[in-house]
Specification:
Length: 221
């Protein structure tokens, strides 16, 4: 398996977009299968929904500029890790780690790096679990390892991140301190909500199991 090798120019650009789109398809299908299997075995699916996207050329160029690199195809492939991005939105925080473990065990995926912004939230209050993986893309004459950034978060974390992203962009990164502070407070509320929903779900599962055990006992007597 080889890393992506492309020429500069429109041809090179079209080749990388084709590869990243293929990688999104491969990883997307894998995730759907894992979710279906989980539903089949445990009668429960950890994924609420999945979003995929290819980073826009403007956003790629902006990121390279921020890193201090020229906008060449080579630099895009080497330094922008999230050209292909998949976001898995889960019901509960426990599902995030369950998903991450299942992804890590897939033999044909290579986990390059992990950033746990749930255990270590960003300064902004941002919470999410990031995995950078590579997936082999089987072409007619070669196999190309292609990077995909997987972001895993709960619905509540996704709600916060989507709105914060909009607000942040309005201020182009220079939001007044009182707004950043309010956003951090909102992130706290989101974490409390996630914790409450998780314990509520655990309580419901326990109550249901107790009820079923009681019914069984009654049937025996
Ligand atoms: P966009 O518009 O979402 O594509 P970096 O830290 O960005 O220099 P890297 O390795 O990509 O380098 O970082 P990371 O932290 O693994 O992933 C960055 C992505 O996470 C961002 O992509 C966002 O999607 C998301 N993210 C990180 N921090 C925040 C945050 O404070 N708020 C929100 N809403 N999202 C965040 P891009 O390319 O920055 O932006």
């Amino acid at each position: 398996e080889s890393p992506i090798e492309v020429t500069e120019g429109v041809d090179g650009w079209n080749t990388i977009i084709f590869l990243y789109n293929s990688a999104l398809k491969e990883v997307g299908t894998k995730l759907e299968i894992l979710n279906d299997e989980f539903q089949h075995v445990h009668q429960y699916n950890p994924i609420e929904y999945i979003k995929r996207r290819i980073k826009t050329p403007e956003s790629i160029v902006k990121k390279l500029k921020r890193y201090g690199y020229e906008s060449t195809i080579d630099n895009m492939v080497n330094y922008v890790n999230d050209i292909a991005g998949i976001r898995i939105v889960c019901s509960f925080t426990s599902d995030i780690y369950r998903m991450a473990e299942m992804i890590g065990k897939q033999n044909d995926l290579t986990v390059v790096s992990v950033k746990d912004y749930i255990k270590h939230p960003k300064e902004s209050g941002y919470k999410s679990y990031h995995m950078l993986v590579t997936v082999p893309i089987f072409l007619s004459d070669r196999v190309v390892d292609t990077k995909v950034e997987i972001q895993i978060r709960t619905i509540a974390m996704d709600f916060w991140a989507s709105l914060e992203h909009k607000i942040y962009y309005k201020f182009e990164g220079n939001a007044p301190e009182y707004i950043s502070k309010d956003l951090r407070e909102c992130a706290e509320i989101v974490s409390m909500l996630d914790a409450k929903m998780l314990s509520l779900n655990e309580a419901i599962l326990e109550a249901k199991a107790a009820q079923e055990a009681e019914l069984l006992r009654e049937e025996k007597d």
